[in-house]
């Protein structure tokens, strides 16, 4: 690796790192990441296409699902350029402003995903607890308003982060832990006081992820209370089965995200590969698994996929 020059006032670039401790397996890791990208991009693009083309899927639940798939495409495309450059083409340098822009989009799509999952939990709550009012509560206009609110909230929360970082002097070797730019990773490098950055980062994590996760949990407590009031065991299981896909999406998003946050804040001296693999799980697992889960558990999407990919008639 080329030597890194330090700068006592500013920096023009960062050096991204892949898995130098696993250099002998570098080509296999690059191939695996490319495969994950292909699965994520193709899978989410298919979900969006199927929902657009299938009239029977023009319902609030599937509108939110299509928004989730578009967001997952955003996550994949946000990390793709630097991952390809550093791991496949061995170009580890990224410009300072480009790194800040990538950081913005990665965290923007993460915050947006949390909001979408909350909106989907509200959809499940209304569908199960107030089914007679479902169509009047979740109108197309209200779904659009909810979608715009999620996007605006995410933008407003993430927008200050690049500017808070840009005001700081970077006087250490500007080597990042990952092959993409994350706020906690960038926050290790300035030699100035990062208290404001850390406090703001903690604030938006609590006010977004914290509040969203509590409201999602609350919605499922109310759903469970409503389901337990159903007399028939078969009907109870059938009702709960409509929530399995969403519960899976919530778990595969929040568990890796909490792991990344905990490792960065409380296990700072853990081996580098721990930071890298938790971060990979956070950014790669949800976009890859969400379309697989929904295509398996949603009959209409599963049926349309079979028609498209296998030519099977139902």
Automatic annotation (TrEMBL):
Annotated GO biological process: cellular response to lipid
Subcellular location: Cell membrane; Membrane
GO cellular component, one term: plasma membrane
Annotated keywords: Cell membrane, G-protein coupled receptor, Membrane, Olfaction, Receptor, Sensory transduction, Transducer, Transmembrane, Transmembrane helix
GO molecular function: G protein-coupled receptor activity; olfactory receptor activity
Organism domain of life: Eukaryota
Domain G-protein coupled receptors family 1 profile: 43-294
Pfam families, per database record: 7tm_4 (PF13853)
Transmembrane region(s): 28-51, 63-84, 104-122, 143-165, 202-231, 243-267, 279-296
Record's bilayer topology term: Multi-pass membrane protein
PANTHER family registered for this protein in UniProt: OLFACTORY RECEPTOR (PTHR26450:SF20), OLFACTORY RECEPTOR 56B1-RELATED (PTHR26450)
Family per record: Belongs to the G-protein coupled receptor 1 family.
Record's protein name: Olfactory receptor
Originating organism: Mesocricetus auratus (Golden hamster)
């Amino acid at each position: 690796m080329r030597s890194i020059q330090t700068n006592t006032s500013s920096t023009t670039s960062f050096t991204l790192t892949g898995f130098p401790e696993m250099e002998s397996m570098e080509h296999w890791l690059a191939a695996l990441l490319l495969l994950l990208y292909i699965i994520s991009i193709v899978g989410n693009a298919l979900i969006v296409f199927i929902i657009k083309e299938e009239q029977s899927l023009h319902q609030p639940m599937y509108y939110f699902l299509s928004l989730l798939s578009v967001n997952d495409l955003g996550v994949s495309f946000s990390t793709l350029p630097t991952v390809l450059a550093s791991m496949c083409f061995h170009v580890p340098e990224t410009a300072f402003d480009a790194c800040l822009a990538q950081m913005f989009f990665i965290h923007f799509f993460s915050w947006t995903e949390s909001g979408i999952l909350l909106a989907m939990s509200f959809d499940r709550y209304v569908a199960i607890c107030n089914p007679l009012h479902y169509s009047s509560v979740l109108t197309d206009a209200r779904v659009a308003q909810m979608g715009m609110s999620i996007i605006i909230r995410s933008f407003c929360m993430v927008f200050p982060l690049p500017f808070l970082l840009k005001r700081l002097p970077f006087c250490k070797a500007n080597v990042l832990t990952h092959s993409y730019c994350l706020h906690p990773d960038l926050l290790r490098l300035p030699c100035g006081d990062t208290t404001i950055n850390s406090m703001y980062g903690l604030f938006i994590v609590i006010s977004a992820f914290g509040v969203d996760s509590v409201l999602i949990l609350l919605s499922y407590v109310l759903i469970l209370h409503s389901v337990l009031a159903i007399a028939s065991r078969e009907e109870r299981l059938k009702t709960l089965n409509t929530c399995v896909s969403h519960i899976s999406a919530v778990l595969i998003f929040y568990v890796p995200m909490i792991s990344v946050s905990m490792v960065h804040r409380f296990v700072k001296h853990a081996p580098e590969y721990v930071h890298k693999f938790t971060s990979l799980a956070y950014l790669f697992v949800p976009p890859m698994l969400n379309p697989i889960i929904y295509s398996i558990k949603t009959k209409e999407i599963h049926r349309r996929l079979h028609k498209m990919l296998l030519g099977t008639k139902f």
